[in-house]
Design a protein that fits this description.
single chain, mainly alpha, 123 residues
Length: 123
Amino acid sequence: MTIREAIDLVDRLTPNQYDNEDKVRWLSTLDGMVQAEIRAEHGADEAFRGYGPACDMDGTELLVPMPYDELYRWYLEMKIADANGEIVRCNNAAEKFNRCWAAYFAACNRAGLPRQRADHFRL
């Protein structure tokens, strides 16, 4: 999912007054967390520098792949509701975001675990 796709999806599903600069900053924060808390734990060495205001929104792929990229939608909806002071909507979006985050985290853990092999076993 690109930055543009994430923003267009949220704008279509949750009309809001925030400009793309705010949403890019929120996405940058989320991908910074993904890099620091999940990818770095599994051996990803590259440093995440964030998405600046001049980034290519159409060509920049976000870090979380499909099918876990739904977390971008819920994170942006959570941030929008929080900025609007809509506590119930924020909590609902946060719950859905946390489920997506946990699913992605679990998938990374499953993929990152070393394969255990036993040449023999004792009876």
